[in-house]
Amino acid sequence: MGLALVGAVAGPQWDPVPVSDHLVPATSDTTVHGASDPGAVGEVGEFEVRETPVSIPLDGTEVGGLLRQPLDAQGEVLGGRPGLVYVHGAGTGKSTEAFVESATALASAGVVTLVPDKRLDTYTTRDRDYVAMAADYERSVDLLRATDGVDADRVGVYGESEGTWIVPIMQAQDPAIATTVLVSAPVVPPRQQAAFAVDNYLRNTGVPDQVFRAIPRAVGMQLPGGGFDYADFDVRPWLEQQTAPVLMAYGAADPSMPVEQGARQVIADTAVGGDDAPVTVRFYADANHGINVPTPTPGGGTEMHLHPDFARDVATWVQGMPGTADAEPRIAGAQPNQLYLASAVPQPLWWGNGDIVVGGVLVGVGLLVAGPLVWIVHALVRRVVRPRSAVPAPRLGRGLRTALAGLGAGSVATMVALVVYLLAVAQLALDYQRDDLVVQGGWVGVRLLGVATAVAAALVLRRVVDGRAARRAALAAGADTGPDGEGPAPAAGETPDHVVVARGWPAHLTFWCVVVGSLALLLTLAYWGVYQLGI
């Protein structure tokens, strides 16, 4: 109960707000209407596509890229075409591997596309500067505007996932950007999106309710080693400066994005400035984060490929400007079903610094190893140097050695079991699978180990209290408590285990190392919810 209370007050709870007012698409048909010149809107597959590697100069370096241009019947580059520069999502991104289906399909419909390589020398897990990244991608916009066959006044930007935090910066700083396509846009800050995604993934795996308390404690804390300042980046001030039309696209089967909330927020924020930045929203049935859907293969299996309507809609929207910018329906496609709002993540208090969390575990494990190791070394040295010494060998009292070993081993075993459990659940969540034996049975197993460890701690405490009480009784009776004051001096062949707690400095050191080390691990386990009792 004490550990449960400590775990409850040591950090924030998790209580996301349900979505009560859902977006309702006007129609399930995602087709984009209202093209200003329908005859100028090409269809996907209408043109042959030429792929040309390019080099894009940046400050202090350069990156490669892949330019895709539509060709006429004579194999010449079409003139006066709109263009799109692609902005990568999280992780690495080679132009030869990223956006292949999308960029090729749009080019085959008459849109010139440029996919640059992602700059990685200034991009790490800990440090990312979205404003600087926007400046880098702007170089690709300049290159595309100067490309043969491209109408420089009709060049837009296409961003996916993390890239949708960058695209609004580009458009705000370069109002000449004609269109912006935001695909799977989180819109909310990265920390909020991460908590939202973890919540959704965990719900899909069917984990016990107690596990959800770990979300704000993991996502809300300052991560070990520092950095990650971009976790609280807010794109809304940039959205309020938009002047170009916006096309938003989401996969209705994407659990990682707040699809309804994101669409509402972009519609609201782009209207703040009063400039012409109309928003068109499309939800694609059964599509995932990359707007891909399972597609049958000749061998009877399935592969993930771009939703068949997506490239058509983007191509029509881009080529049909300005008529398609505000054409009805504004919101169309599959019915989205966002269960909870992505909101500010509560910040942990005592364990708010990840270095403290990791340090506590390392210190705990270090003490558990150090104490017994010192005792073993002392015993080996004593055996070699003073094999027949009259000084009694270090010892722990009767029953204390077993209880102490159970406490130390149990705390480590529970910590290891918790880590293994969380990794197994994470793998299931990423694979979007359920396994009740793992998520339910595994949690029960972790908690049972935790209870057994708490029992061992209680036995240690009881043995110490009993030993102290026996010692006080012996002193009150006038008995000799022995040379170290821990118990009565033994008669020949007699072992006073009923009053001995620890004898000799190695035993005392081991006792306190195990107790303090285990306590550090138990408090950490309580923080992560192993000892929850509904409080």
TrEMBL record:
Chain ranges passing through the membrane: 356-381, 402-430, 442-461, 509-530
Alphabetical keyword list: Membrane, Transmembrane, Transmembrane helix
PANTHER family named among the record's database cross-references: ESTERASE ESTD
The keyword Transmembrane is annotated on this UniProt entry: yes
Keyword Metal-binding included in the entry's annotation: no
Name used for this protein in its record: Peptidase S9 prolyl oligopeptidase catalytic domain-containing protein
Family matches, as InterPro entries: AB_hydrolase_Est10 (IPR053145), AB_hydrolase_fold (IPR029058)
